[in-house]
Protein backbone atom coordinates (compact mmCIF):
# COMPACT_ATOMS: atom_id res chain seq x y z
CA UNK A 1 0.00 0.00 0.00
CA UNK A 2 3.05 2.20 -0.01
CA UNK A 3 2.66 5.00 -2.49
CA UNK A 4 4.54 8.24 -2.42
CA UNK A 5 5.53 8.59 1.20
CA UNK A 6 8.32 9.33 3.66
CA UNK A 7 11.01 6.70 4.27
CA UNK A 8 12.88 7.10 7.53
CA UNK A 9 16.39 5.75 7.97
CA UNK A 10 17.55 6.49 11.53
CA UNK A 11 20.95 5.04 10.60
CA UNK A 12 21.57 8.09 8.42
CA UNK A 13 20.33 10.69 10.91
CA UNK A 14 23.11 12.87 12.27
CA UNK A 15 20.85 14.87 14.60
CA UNK A 16 21.50 18.16 12.80
CA UNK A 17 17.98 19.53 13.52
CA UNK A 18 17.56 20.83 9.95
CA UNK A 19 14.20 19.02 9.73
CA UNK A 20 13.08 20.57 13.02
CA UNK A 21 13.75 24.06 11.67
CA UNK A 22 12.23 23.36 8.28
CA UNK A 23 9.06 21.92 9.83
CA UNK A 24 8.56 25.22 11.61
CA UNK A 25 8.24 26.88 8.19
CA UNK A 26 5.39 24.65 7.05
CA UNK A 27 2.42 26.85 6.16
CA UNK A 28 -0.12 24.68 7.90
CA UNK A 29 1.40 25.29 11.35
CA UNK A 30 3.74 28.20 10.85
CA UNK A 31 6.13 28.89 13.72
CA UNK A 32 5.65 25.51 15.39
CA UNK A 33 7.71 22.47 14.61
CA UNK A 34 5.86 19.17 14.59
CA UNK A 35 8.72 16.77 13.89
CA UNK A 36 10.38 15.14 16.88
CA UNK A 37 14.10 14.45 17.14
CA UNK A 38 15.00 12.14 20.00
CA UNK A 39 18.15 10.58 21.35
CA UNK A 40 17.28 6.99 22.27
CA UNK A 41 20.64 6.24 23.85
CA UNK A 42 21.47 9.62 25.31
CA UNK A 43 24.83 9.76 27.05
CA UNK A 44 26.10 6.61 25.40
CA UNK A 45 25.83 7.15 21.70
CA UNK A 46 24.97 9.96 19.31
CA UNK A 47 22.14 7.93 17.79
CA UNK A 48 19.18 10.13 16.95
CA UNK A 49 15.71 9.33 15.68
CA UNK A 50 13.43 11.67 13.73
CA UNK A 51 9.72 10.99 14.21
CA UNK A 52 7.00 12.16 11.86
CA UNK A 53 3.40 11.00 11.88
CA UNK A 54 3.37 7.45 10.54
CA UNK A 55 -0.13 7.86 9.05
CA UNK A 56 -1.31 4.55 10.50
CA UNK A 57 -3.41 2.53 8.09
CA UNK A 58 -4.41 -0.53 10.06
CA UNK A 59 -5.77 -0.04 12.62
CA UNK A 60 -6.59 3.17 10.84
CA UNK A 61 -5.23 6.13 12.80
CA UNK A 62 -5.57 5.15 16.49
CA UNK A 63 -5.44 8.88 17.26
CA UNK A 64 -8.60 9.45 15.23
CA UNK A 65 -10.33 6.41 16.72
CA UNK A 66 -9.92 7.56 20.31
CA UNK A 67 -10.89 11.15 19.53
CA UNK A 68 -14.18 11.91 21.29
CA UNK A 69 -14.93 14.82 18.96
CA UNK A 70 -14.35 13.21 15.53
CA UNK A 71 -11.77 15.94 15.06
CA UNK A 72 -9.10 14.00 13.18
CA UNK A 73 -9.82 13.60 9.52
CA UNK A 74 -8.27 10.85 7.43
CA UNK A 75 -8.37 12.02 3.82
CA UNK A 76 -8.99 9.60 0.99
CA UNK A 77 -5.27 9.59 0.16
CA UNK A 78 -4.53 8.10 3.59
CA UNK A 79 -3.13 11.26 5.16
CA UNK A 80 -4.09 11.67 8.80
CA UNK A 81 -4.75 15.39 9.18
CA UNK A 82 -4.23 17.73 12.10
CA UNK A 83 -7.19 18.20 14.39
CA UNK A 84 -10.06 20.24 12.99
CA UNK A 85 -9.84 23.57 14.82
CA UNK A 86 -13.60 23.73 15.17
CA UNK A 87 -14.01 20.33 16.77
CA UNK A 88 -10.92 19.60 18.84
CA UNK A 89 -11.65 20.07 22.55
CA UNK A 90 -8.04 19.56 23.60
CA UNK A 91 -8.64 16.40 25.62
CA UNK A 92 -5.24 14.87 24.72
CA UNK A 93 -6.68 11.42 24.04
CA UNK A 94 -4.83 11.33 20.73
CA UNK A 95 -1.59 12.48 22.34
CA UNK A 96 -1.61 9.63 24.82
CA UNK A 97 -3.02 6.94 22.55
CA UNK A 98 -0.72 7.41 19.54
CA UNK A 99 1.69 4.46 19.72
CA UNK A 100 4.43 6.50 18.07
CA UNK A 101 4.16 9.53 20.39
CA UNK A 102 3.41 11.96 17.58
CA UNK A 103 0.62 14.52 18.32
CA UNK A 104 1.36 17.66 20.29
CA UNK A 105 -1.17 19.72 22.14
CA UNK A 106 -1.48 23.40 22.92
CA UNK A 107 -3.21 23.40 26.28
CA UNK A 108 -3.93 27.14 26.19
CA UNK A 109 -5.52 27.01 22.76
CA UNK A 110 -7.18 23.63 23.49
CA UNK A 111 -5.91 22.38 20.19
CA UNK A 112 -4.01 19.34 19.03
CA UNK A 113 -1.41 19.79 16.32
CA UNK A 114 0.54 17.17 14.48
CA UNK A 115 2.50 16.34 11.37
CA UNK A 116 0.12 16.28 8.40
CA UNK A 117 2.72 15.20 5.85
CA UNK A 118 2.96 18.87 4.82
CA UNK A 119 -0.44 18.57 3.21
CA UNK A 120 -0.12 22.07 1.78
CA UNK A 121 2.87 20.76 -0.20
CA UNK A 122 2.34 17.04 -0.77
CA UNK A 123 -1.21 17.59 -2.03
CA UNK A 124 0.45 19.51 -4.88
CA UNK A 125 3.25 17.01 -5.52
CA UNK A 126 5.98 18.78 -3.52
CA UNK A 127 8.08 16.93 -0.95
CA UNK A 128 7.50 17.69 2.73
CA UNK A 129 9.73 20.30 4.34
CA UNK A 130 11.71 17.81 6.45
CA UNK A 131 12.61 15.51 3.56
CA UNK A 132 13.48 18.50 1.40
CA UNK A 133 16.14 19.76 3.77
CA UNK A 134 17.51 16.52 5.27
CA UNK A 135 21.18 16.52 4.22
CA UNK A 136 21.77 12.78 4.69
CA UNK A 137 18.64 11.20 3.30
CA UNK A 138 17.50 10.00 6.71
CA UNK A 139 14.15 11.40 5.62
CA UNK A 140 13.39 10.53 2.00
CA UNK A 141 10.17 11.36 0.17
CA UNK A 142 9.09 9.45 -2.91
CA UNK A 143 8.02 6.01 -4.00
CA UNK A 144 9.80 2.81 -3.04
CA UNK A 145 11.10 2.56 -6.61
CA UNK A 146 12.57 6.03 -6.40
CA UNK A 147 14.23 5.13 -3.11
CA UNK A 148 15.65 1.93 -4.60
CA UNK A 149 16.94 3.80 -7.63
CA UNK A 150 19.12 5.80 -5.24
CA UNK A 151 19.87 2.99 -2.81
CA UNK A 152 19.87 -0.32 -4.66
CA UNK A 153 18.50 -3.24 -2.68
CA UNK A 154 17.30 -1.20 0.28
CA UNK A 155 14.61 -2.88 2.37
CA UNK A 156 11.81 -1.14 4.18
CA UNK A 157 9.20 -2.13 6.74
CA UNK A 158 5.78 -0.63 7.30
CA UNK A 159 4.48 -2.58 10.27
CA UNK A 160 5.31 -2.18 13.92
CA UNK A 161 4.42 -4.25 16.97
CA UNK A 162 3.16 -2.78 20.20
CA UNK A 163 2.46 -5.56 22.64
CA UNK A 164 0.15 -7.95 20.82
CA UNK A 165 -0.98 -5.43 18.22
CA UNK A 166 0.62 -4.87 14.85
CA UNK A 167 0.17 -1.43 13.37
CA UNK A 168 0.78 -0.99 9.67
CA UNK A 169 1.60 2.47 8.54
CA UNK A 170 1.68 4.71 5.50
CA UNK A 171 5.16 5.97 6.33
CA UNK A 172 7.91 3.34 6.21
CA UNK A 173 11.27 2.74 7.83
CA UNK A 174 14.47 1.41 6.33
CA UNK A 175 15.54 -1.94 7.83
CA UNK A 176 18.42 -4.32 7.17
CA UNK A 177 17.73 -7.02 4.58
CA UNK A 178 17.54 -9.81 7.18
CA UNK A 179 14.97 -7.96 9.26
CA UNK A 180 12.19 -7.40 6.75
CA UNK A 181 10.32 -10.56 7.60
CA UNK A 182 8.92 -9.42 10.92
CA UNK A 183 7.22 -6.28 12.07
CA UNK A 184 9.60 -3.77 13.59
CA UNK A 185 9.42 -3.68 17.41
CA UNK A 186 7.70 -0.51 18.55
CA UNK A 187 9.16 -0.47 22.06
CA UNK A 188 6.28 -2.16 23.89
CA UNK A 189 6.59 -4.38 25.90
CA UNK A 190 9.20 -2.30 27.59
CA UNK A 191 12.26 -4.34 28.48
CA UNK A 192 14.52 -1.72 29.89
CA UNK A 193 14.19 1.59 31.67
CA UNK A 194 17.16 3.85 32.31
CA UNK A 195 19.57 1.00 31.67
CA UNK A 196 17.74 -1.29 34.10
CA UNK A 197 16.15 -4.43 32.80
CA UNK A 198 12.51 -4.24 33.93
CA UNK A 199 11.23 -7.48 32.45
CA UNK B 1 10.01 -10.87 25.17
CA UNK B 2 13.17 -9.34 23.82
CA UNK B 3 12.96 -10.37 20.22
CA UNK B 4 9.93 -9.90 18.07
CA UNK B 5 8.48 -13.24 17.07
CA UNK B 6 10.89 -14.66 14.51
CA UNK B 7 8.32 -17.04 13.16
CA UNK B 8 5.86 -14.43 12.11
CA UNK B 9 5.26 -14.11 8.41
CA UNK B 10 5.46 -10.75 6.74
CA UNK B 11 2.22 -9.24 7.76
CA UNK B 12 -0.59 -9.50 5.22
CA UNK B 13 -2.20 -6.22 4.27
CA UNK B 14 -4.46 -6.29 7.29
CA UNK B 15 -1.61 -7.19 9.65
CA UNK B 16 -2.32 -9.04 12.86
CA UNK B 17 -4.79 -6.40 13.86
CA UNK B 18 -8.32 -7.51 14.57
CA UNK B 19 -11.25 -6.77 12.36
CA UNK B 20 -9.96 -4.83 9.38
CA UNK B 21 -12.30 -2.32 7.92
CA UNK B 22 -13.44 1.12 8.82
CA UNK B 23 -13.16 1.93 12.47
CA UNK B 24 -16.22 3.24 14.22
CA UNK B 25 -16.42 6.97 14.09
CA UNK B 26 -13.69 7.41 11.52
CA UNK B 27 -14.53 8.09 7.93
CA UNK B 28 -12.96 9.71 4.97
CA UNK B 29 -14.78 12.92 5.71
CA UNK B 30 -14.05 12.75 9.40
CA UNK B 31 -17.72 13.07 10.10
CA UNK B 32 -20.06 10.60 11.65
CA UNK B 33 -19.67 7.10 10.42
CA UNK B 34 -22.24 6.51 7.71
CA UNK B 35 -21.98 2.80 8.52
CA UNK B 36 -22.99 3.26 12.12
CA UNK B 37 -24.25 -0.11 13.31
CA UNK B 38 -27.94 -0.73 12.68
CA UNK B 39 -28.69 -0.77 16.41
CA UNK B 40 -27.16 2.67 16.81
CA UNK B 41 -29.06 4.00 13.85
CA UNK B 42 -32.30 2.66 15.23
CA UNK B 43 -31.63 4.29 18.59
CA UNK B 44 -30.77 7.53 16.80
CA UNK B 45 -34.03 7.52 14.80
CA UNK B 46 -35.91 6.88 18.02
CA UNK B 47 -34.18 9.77 19.78
CA UNK B 48 -34.77 12.03 16.80
CA UNK B 49 -38.44 11.15 16.64
CA UNK B 50 -38.93 11.62 20.37
CA UNK B 51 -37.30 15.04 20.35
CA UNK B 52 -39.24 16.24 17.30
CA UNK B 53 -42.54 15.08 18.80
CA UNK B 54 -41.69 16.92 22.01
CA UNK B 55 -40.93 20.06 20.04
CA UNK B 56 -44.19 19.84 18.10
CA UNK B 57 -46.09 19.48 21.38
CA UNK B 58 -44.19 22.44 22.81
CA UNK B 59 -45.11 24.50 19.75
CA UNK B 60 -48.78 23.53 19.93
CA UNK B 61 -49.17 24.21 23.64
CA UNK B 62 -46.76 27.17 23.72
CA UNK B 63 -48.79 28.95 21.07
CA UNK B 64 -51.99 28.36 23.04
CA UNK B 65 -53.21 25.63 20.69
CA UNK B 66 -51.89 27.52 17.66
CA UNK B 67 -53.97 30.62 18.43
CA UNK B 68 -50.72 32.66 18.60
CA UNK B 69 -49.05 30.75 15.79
CA UNK B 70 -48.15 32.89 12.78
CA UNK B 71 -48.83 30.77 9.72
CA UNK B 72 -46.53 32.96 7.62
CA UNK B 73 -43.70 31.48 9.65
CA UNK B 74 -44.74 27.89 9.07
CA UNK B 75 -41.73 26.95 6.88
CA UNK B 76 -39.41 28.16 9.61
CA UNK B 77 -41.24 26.16 12.25
CA UNK B 78 -41.12 23.04 10.10
CA UNK B 79 -37.38 23.55 9.61
CA UNK B 80 -36.86 23.72 13.37
CA UNK B 81 -38.62 20.37 13.73
CA UNK B 82 -36.25 18.88 11.16
CA UNK B 83 -33.39 20.54 13.01
CA UNK B 84 -34.49 18.92 16.26
CA UNK B 85 -34.62 15.52 14.58
CA UNK B 86 -31.22 15.94 12.96
CA UNK B 87 -29.52 17.14 16.11
CA UNK B 88 -30.90 14.30 18.23
CA UNK B 89 -30.03 11.76 15.53
CA UNK B 90 -26.47 12.96 15.04
CA UNK B 91 -25.93 13.41 18.75
CA UNK B 92 -26.94 9.80 19.41
CA UNK B 93 -24.67 8.45 16.68
CA UNK B 94 -21.83 10.62 17.92
CA UNK B 95 -21.96 9.58 21.56
CA UNK B 96 -22.28 5.92 20.56
CA UNK B 97 -18.67 5.77 19.33
CA UNK B 98 -16.30 4.49 22.03
CA UNK B 99 -14.20 7.63 22.54
CA UNK B 100 -17.18 9.92 22.89
CA UNK B 101 -19.28 7.45 24.87
CA UNK B 102 -16.83 7.10 27.73
CA UNK B 103 -16.15 10.81 27.96
CA UNK B 104 -19.87 11.52 27.76
CA UNK B 105 -20.48 9.28 30.79
CA UNK B 106 -17.61 10.73 32.79
CA UNK B 107 -18.59 14.25 31.86
CA UNK B 108 -22.21 13.90 32.96
CA UNK B 109 -21.18 11.98 36.05
CA UNK B 110 -18.99 14.92 37.10
CA UNK B 111 -21.80 17.27 36.12
CA UNK B 112 -24.39 15.63 38.35
CA UNK B 113 -22.11 14.72 41.23
CA UNK B 114 -23.35 16.40 44.41
CA UNK B 115 -19.95 15.84 46.01
CA UNK B 116 -18.25 17.77 43.23
CA UNK B 117 -20.75 20.55 43.58
CA UNK B 118 -20.15 20.85 47.32
CA UNK B 119 -16.40 20.80 46.85
CA UNK B 120 -16.27 23.36 44.05
CA UNK B 121 -19.64 25.02 43.46
CA UNK B 122 -18.21 27.62 41.09
CA UNK B 123 -16.31 25.21 38.84
CA UNK B 124 -19.21 24.43 36.53
CA UNK B 125 -20.49 27.97 35.88
CA UNK B 126 -16.91 29.13 35.49
CA UNK B 127 -16.17 26.48 32.89
CA UNK B 128 -19.39 27.14 30.99
CA UNK B 129 -18.44 30.81 30.83
CA UNK B 130 -14.86 30.19 29.65
CA UNK B 131 -15.41 27.30 27.24
CA UNK B 132 -18.86 28.07 25.87
CA UNK B 133 -19.61 31.76 26.41
CA UNK B 134 -16.36 33.64 26.12
CA UNK B 135 -14.25 30.91 24.49
CA UNK B 136 -11.10 32.18 26.12
CA UNK B 137 -9.01 29.43 24.55
CA UNK B 138 -9.66 30.92 21.11
CA UNK B 139 -7.66 33.97 22.18
CA UNK B 140 -4.63 31.73 22.47
CA UNK B 141 -5.05 30.79 18.81
CA UNK B 142 -5.29 34.42 17.76
CA UNK B 143 -7.02 37.49 19.12
CA UNK B 144 -8.67 38.16 15.78
CA UNK B 145 -10.15 34.67 15.61
CA UNK B 146 -11.45 35.10 19.13
CA UNK B 147 -13.04 38.46 18.38
CA UNK B 148 -14.58 37.29 15.11
CA UNK B 149 -16.01 34.18 16.73
CA UNK B 150 -17.45 36.19 19.61
CA UNK B 151 -19.28 38.34 17.07
CA UNK B 152 -20.63 35.23 15.33
CA UNK B 153 -21.53 33.57 18.59
CA UNK B 154 -23.40 36.44 20.25
CA UNK B 155 -24.98 37.46 16.95
CA UNK B 156 -26.34 33.96 16.37
CA UNK B 157 -27.43 33.61 19.96
CA UNK B 158 -29.32 36.90 19.87
CA UNK B 159 -30.94 36.00 16.56
CA UNK B 160 -31.97 32.57 17.82
CA UNK B 161 -33.35 33.99 21.07
CA UNK B 162 -35.61 36.31 19.10
CA UNK B 163 -36.65 34.20 16.15
CA UNK B 164 -37.16 30.73 17.57
CA UNK B 165 -39.86 31.74 20.09
CA UNK B 166 -41.49 33.94 17.46
CA UNK B 167 -41.71 31.13 14.90
CA UNK B 168 -43.10 28.80 17.53
CA UNK B 169 -45.75 31.33 18.47
CA UNK B 170 -44.39 31.62 21.99
CA UNK B 171 -43.91 35.39 21.87
CA UNK B 172 -46.60 37.75 20.80
CA UNK B 173 -46.75 41.51 20.63
CA UNK B 174 -50.17 42.98 21.14
CA UNK B 175 -51.40 46.50 21.45
CA UNK B 176 -54.51 47.50 23.35
CA UNK B 177 -54.82 50.59 21.21
CA UNK B 178 -54.78 48.79 17.89
CA UNK B 179 -51.61 49.98 16.24
CA UNK B 180 -49.44 51.17 19.09
CA UNK B 181 -47.33 52.85 20.11
CA UNK B 182 -48.06 51.06 23.40
CA UNK B 183 -47.24 47.36 23.02
CA UNK B 184 -47.21 44.40 25.36
CA UNK B 185 -44.92 41.48 24.95
CA UNK B 186 -46.42 38.16 25.97
CA UNK B 187 -44.76 34.79 26.43
CA UNK B 188 -47.09 31.79 26.25
CA UNK B 189 -49.90 34.28 26.53
CA UNK B 190 -48.66 35.83 29.77
CA UNK B 191 -47.89 39.51 29.69
CA UNK B 192 -44.19 40.08 30.41
CA UNK B 193 -43.56 43.75 29.70
CA UNK B 194 -45.30 46.66 28.14
CA UNK B 195 -43.25 49.14 26.15
CA UNK B 196 -43.49 52.07 23.84
CA UNK B 197 -42.66 51.08 20.27
CA UNK B 198 -41.18 54.53 19.68
CA UNK B 199 -38.95 54.40 22.76
CA UNK B 200 -35.49 52.96 23.14
CA UNK B 201 -36.67 49.56 24.34
CA UNK B 202 -39.12 49.42 21.48
CA UNK B 203 -36.38 50.22 19.00
CA UNK B 204 -34.22 47.45 20.46
CA UNK B 205 -37.13 45.01 20.34
CA UNK B 206 -37.79 45.65 16.70
CA UNK B 207 -34.18 45.95 15.57
CA UNK B 208 -32.61 43.15 17.59
CA UNK B 209 -32.33 41.08 14.45
CA UNK B 210 -30.64 43.88 12.55
CA UNK B 211 -28.07 44.19 15.33
CA UNK B 212 -27.53 40.44 15.24
CA UNK B 213 -27.08 40.57 11.47
CA UNK B 214 -24.40 43.24 11.75
CA UNK B 215 -22.49 41.18 14.34
CA UNK B 216 -22.70 38.03 12.23
CA UNK B 217 -21.68 39.76 9.01
CA UNK B 218 -18.59 41.20 10.69
CA UNK B 219 -17.56 37.85 12.16
CA UNK B 220 -18.28 35.81 9.04
CA UNK B 221 -16.52 38.34 6.82
CA UNK B 222 -13.36 38.01 8.90
CA UNK B 223 -13.45 34.21 8.71
CA UNK B 224 -14.11 34.32 4.97
CA UNK B 225 -11.17 36.65 4.51
CA UNK B 226 -9.03 34.36 6.63
CA UNK B 227 -10.04 31.37 4.52
CA UNK B 228 -8.81 33.21 1.42
CA UNK B 229 -5.56 34.48 2.89
CA UNK B 230 -4.29 32.30 5.73
CA UNK B 231 -2.32 29.40 4.31
CA UNK B 232 -2.84 27.33 7.42
CA UNK B 233 -6.61 27.71 7.12
CA UNK B 234 -6.48 26.99 3.39
CA UNK B 235 -4.60 23.69 3.83
CA UNK B 236 -7.10 20.92 3.28
CA UNK B 237 -9.98 23.40 3.12
CA UNK B 238 -13.20 21.96 1.74
CA UNK B 239 -15.89 24.04 0.12
CA UNK B 240 -18.91 22.28 1.60
CA UNK B 241 -17.47 21.99 5.08
CA UNK B 242 -15.53 25.24 5.48
CA UNK B 243 -17.03 27.81 3.13
CA UNK B 244 -20.73 26.94 2.84
CA UNK B 245 -21.44 27.72 6.54
CA UNK B 246 -19.85 31.16 6.27
CA UNK B 247 -21.59 31.95 2.99
CA UNK B 248 -24.90 30.81 4.47
CA UNK B 249 -24.50 33.10 7.47
CA UNK B 250 -23.67 36.07 5.23
CA UNK B 251 -26.64 35.41 2.94
CA UNK B 252 -29.04 35.12 5.88
CA UNK B 253 -27.78 38.30 7.50
CA UNK B 254 -27.61 40.39 4.33
CA UNK B 255 -31.09 39.40 3.14
CA UNK B 256 -32.40 40.02 6.65
CA UNK B 257 -30.93 43.51 6.71
CA UNK B 258 -32.27 44.20 3.23
CA UNK B 259 -35.76 43.32 4.47
CA UNK B 260 -35.51 46.09 7.03
CA UNK B 261 -34.02 48.40 4.41
CA UNK B 262 -36.85 47.62 2.02
CA UNK B 263 -39.58 48.31 4.56
CA UNK B 264 -38.04 51.56 5.83
CA UNK B 265 -36.66 53.09 2.66
CA UNK B 266 -38.33 51.40 -0.29
CA UNK B 267 -41.85 51.22 1.08
CA UNK B 268 -41.63 47.46 0.82
CA UNK B 269 -40.13 47.34 -2.67
CA UNK B 270 -38.70 43.91 -3.40
CA UNK B 271 -39.91 42.71 -0.02
CA UNK B 272 -41.60 39.57 -1.30
CA UNK B 273 -38.57 38.43 -3.25
CA UNK B 274 -36.21 39.15 -0.38
CA UNK B 275 -38.47 37.39 2.07
CA UNK B 276 -38.39 34.23 -0.02
CA UNK B 277 -34.61 34.38 -0.41
CA UNK B 278 -34.20 34.93 3.31
CA UNK B 279 -36.50 32.09 4.16
CA UNK B 280 -34.81 29.66 1.79
CA UNK B 281 -31.36 30.43 3.21
CA UNK B 282 -32.54 30.13 6.81
CA UNK B 283 -34.39 26.86 6.20
CA UNK B 284 -31.37 25.41 4.41
CA UNK B 285 -29.04 26.45 7.25
CA UNK B 286 -31.28 25.09 9.99
CA UNK B 287 -31.53 21.72 8.29
CA UNK B 288 -27.79 21.72 7.60
CA UNK B 289 -26.75 22.44 11.20
CA UNK B 290 -26.51 18.80 12.32
CA UNK B 291 -24.44 17.68 9.36
CA UNK B 292 -21.57 20.05 8.81
CA UNK B 293 -19.39 22.48 10.65
CA UNK B 294 -22.32 23.89 12.60
CA UNK B 295 -22.58 20.63 14.49
CA UNK B 296 -19.82 21.99 16.72
CA UNK B 297 -22.48 24.11 18.43
CA UNK B 298 -23.97 20.84 19.68
CA UNK B 299 -20.61 19.16 20.22
CA UNK B 300 -18.59 21.82 22.02
CA UNK B 301 -20.33 21.42 25.41
CA UNK B 302 -18.32 18.17 25.56
CA UNK B 303 -15.34 20.43 26.27
CA UNK B 304 -17.00 21.45 29.52
CA UNK B 305 -17.68 17.83 30.44
CA UNK B 306 -14.09 16.88 29.67
CA UNK B 307 -12.62 19.77 31.67
CA UNK B 308 -14.95 19.15 34.58
CA UNK B 309 -13.99 15.47 34.61
CA UNK B 310 -10.28 16.29 34.65
CA UNK B 311 -10.73 19.07 37.18
CA UNK B 312 -12.76 17.06 39.66
CA UNK B 313 -10.60 13.97 39.34
CA UNK B 314 -7.57 16.12 40.10
CA UNK B 315 -9.25 17.34 43.26
CA UNK B 316 -10.62 14.12 44.70
CA UNK B 317 -8.49 12.81 47.51
CA UNK B 318 -7.71 9.21 48.50
CA UNK B 319 -5.14 8.41 45.90
CA UNK B 320 -7.58 8.92 43.07
CA UNK B 321 -6.69 12.52 42.59
CA UNK B 322 -3.11 11.70 41.85
CA UNK B 323 -1.63 12.77 38.61
CA UNK B 324 -0.25 9.78 36.81
CA UNK B 325 3.41 10.17 35.89
CA UNK B 326 5.26 8.54 33.03
CA UNK B 327 6.55 5.16 34.13
CA UNK B 328 9.96 5.91 32.67
CA UNK B 329 10.73 9.61 33.09
CA UNK B 330 8.15 10.52 35.77
CA UNK B 331 6.87 13.54 33.87
CA UNK B 332 3.15 14.05 34.60
CA UNK B 333 0.79 12.63 31.98
CA UNK B 334 -2.71 13.36 33.26
CA UNK B 335 -4.99 12.44 36.14
CA UNK B 336 -5.23 8.75 36.91
CA UNK B 337 -9.00 8.54 36.17
CA UNK B 338 -8.40 10.23 32.81
CA UNK B 339 -5.73 7.71 31.85
CA UNK B 340 -7.96 4.84 33.04
CA UNK B 341 -10.76 6.25 30.89
CA UNK B 342 -8.48 6.45 27.85
CA UNK B 343 -7.22 2.92 28.38
CA UNK B 344 -10.83 1.73 28.50
CA UNK B 345 -11.52 3.52 25.24
CA UNK B 346 -8.49 1.88 23.64
CA UNK B 347 -9.60 -1.56 24.79
CA UNK B 348 -13.11 -0.90 23.42
CA UNK B 349 -11.46 -0.21 20.08
CA UNK B 350 -9.28 -3.33 20.21
CA UNK B 351 -6.14 -1.22 20.40
CA UNK B 352 -4.11 -3.77 22.30
CA UNK B 353 -1.43 -1.38 23.48
CA UNK B 354 -3.39 0.55 26.11
CA UNK B 355 -0.57 -0.04 28.62
CA UNK B 356 1.47 2.32 26.44
CA UNK B 357 -0.76 5.19 27.68
CA UNK B 358 1.22 5.15 30.91
CA UNK B 359 4.33 6.35 29.11
CA UNK B 360 4.73 9.92 27.93
CA UNK B 361 4.96 10.52 24.18
CA UNK B 362 8.67 11.27 24.34
CA UNK B 363 9.47 8.06 26.18
CA UNK B 364 7.42 6.12 23.63
CA UNK B 365 9.61 7.52 20.90
CA UNK B 366 12.81 6.96 22.83
CA UNK B 367 11.88 3.38 23.71
CA UNK B 368 10.99 2.68 20.10
CA UNK B 369 14.32 4.16 19.06
CA UNK B 370 16.09 1.99 21.62
CA UNK B 371 14.29 -1.10 20.36
CA UNK B 372 15.30 -0.26 16.81
CA UNK B 373 18.86 0.27 18.00
CA UNK B 374 18.92 -3.05 19.87
CA UNK B 375 17.03 -5.35 17.57
CA UNK B 376 16.85 -3.92 14.09
CA UNK B 377 20.07 -2.13 13.34
CA UNK B 378 22.76 -2.58 15.95
CA UNK B 379 24.13 0.86 16.68
CA UNK B 380 22.14 2.30 13.76
CA UNK B 381 25.01 1.20 11.47
C1 LIG C 1 -21.37 26.48 21.90
C2 LIG C 1 -20.57 27.53 21.75
C3 LIG C 1 -19.54 27.55 20.65
C4 LIG C 1 -18.24 27.18 20.76
C5 LIG C 1 -17.54 26.69 22.04
C6 LIG C 1 -17.63 27.34 19.47
C7 LIG C 1 -16.31 27.05 19.17
C8 LIG C 1 -15.69 27.22 17.94
C9 LIG C 1 -14.31 26.98 17.66
C10 LIG C 1 -13.28 26.49 18.67
C11 LIG C 1 -14.08 27.27 16.36
C12 LIG C 1 -12.74 27.21 15.63
C13 LIG C 1 -12.27 28.62 15.43
C14 LIG C 1 -10.82 28.75 15.07
O1 LIG C 1 -9.99 27.96 15.54
O2 LIG C 1 -10.49 29.68 14.32
C15 LIG C 1 -15.34 27.67 15.79
C16 LIG C 1 -15.55 28.01 14.47
C17 LIG C 1 -16.74 28.46 13.96
N1 LIG C 1 -17.89 28.72 14.67
FE1 LIG C 1 -18.21 28.28 16.62
N2 LIG C 1 -18.56 27.79 18.57
C18 LIG C 1 -19.74 27.93 19.26
C19 LIG C 1 -20.93 28.40 18.75
C20 LIG C 1 -21.10 28.90 17.48
C21 LIG C 1 -22.30 29.51 16.99
C22 LIG C 1 -23.58 29.75 17.78
C23 LIG C 1 -22.06 29.83 15.70
C24 LIG C 1 -23.02 30.50 14.78
C25 LIG C 1 -23.56 29.91 13.78
C26 LIG C 1 -20.72 29.43 15.35
C27 LIG C 1 -20.13 29.56 14.11
C28 LIG C 1 -18.83 29.18 13.79
C29 LIG C 1 -18.28 29.21 12.47
C30 LIG C 1 -18.99 29.65 11.20
C31 LIG C 1 -16.95 28.75 12.57
C32 LIG C 1 -15.98 28.55 11.43
C33 LIG C 1 -14.98 29.63 11.29
C34 LIG C 1 -13.96 29.27 10.25
O3 LIG C 1 -14.20 29.49 9.05
O4 LIG C 1 -12.89 28.77 10.61
N3 LIG C 1 -20.15 28.87 16.46
N4 LIG C 1 -16.30 27.65 16.77
S1 LIG D 1 1.41 7.86 14.10
FE1 LIG D 1 0.09 8.59 15.77
S2 LIG D 1 -0.67 10.55 15.06
FE2 LIG D 1 0.10 9.47 13.24
S3 LIG D 1 -1.70 8.37 12.43
FE3 LIG D 1 -0.64 6.96 13.81
S4 LIG D 1 -1.72 7.26 15.76
FE4 LIG D 1 -2.21 9.04 14.51
S1 LIG E 1 -7.07 16.52 21.68
FE1 LIG E 1 -8.49 17.11 20.06
S2 LIG E 1 -7.93 15.83 18.31
FE2 LIG E 1 -6.97 14.92 20.12
S3 LIG E 1 -8.43 13.37 20.81
FE3 LIG E 1 -8.91 15.25 21.96
S4 LIG E 1 -10.48 16.30 20.74
FE4 LIG E 1 -9.55 14.74 19.42
From TrEMBL, chain A:
Q: For the 4Fe-4S ferredoxin-type domain, which residue ranges apply? A: 4-34, 79-108
* PROSITE patterns xref list: 4FE4S_FER_1 (PS00198), 4FE4S_FER_2 (PS51379)
Query: In Gene Ontology terms, what is one molecular function of this protein?
Result: metal ion binding
Query: Can the keyword Ion transport be found in this entry's annotation?
Result: no
Q: Does the keyword Hydrolase apply?
A: no
| Keywords assigned | 4Fe-4S, Electron transport, Iron, Iron-sulfur, Metal-binding, Repeat, Transport
Q: Which SUPFAM superfamilies match?
A: 4Fe-4S ferredoxins
Which superkingdom?
Bacteria
Q: Which Pfam families match?
A: Fer4_11 (PF13247), Fer4_2 (PF12797)
**Designated name of the protein:** Fe-S-cluster-containing dehydrogenase component
Which classification does the entry list for the species? Bacteria, Bacillati, Actinomycetota, Actinomycetes, Kitasatosporales
From TrEMBL, chain B:
The record, for SUPFAM superfamilies, names: Respiratory nitrate reductase 1 gamma chain (SSF103501)
Region (Disordered) location? 1-36
| Record key words, sorted | Membrane, Transmembrane, Transmembrane helix
Transmembrane parts of this sequence = 44-66, 72-92, 151-171, 200-225, 246-265, 271-291
Locate the compositionally biased regions of type Pro residues. 10-23
Enumerate composition-biased segments (Low complexity): 24-36
**Designated name of the protein:** Uncharacterized protein
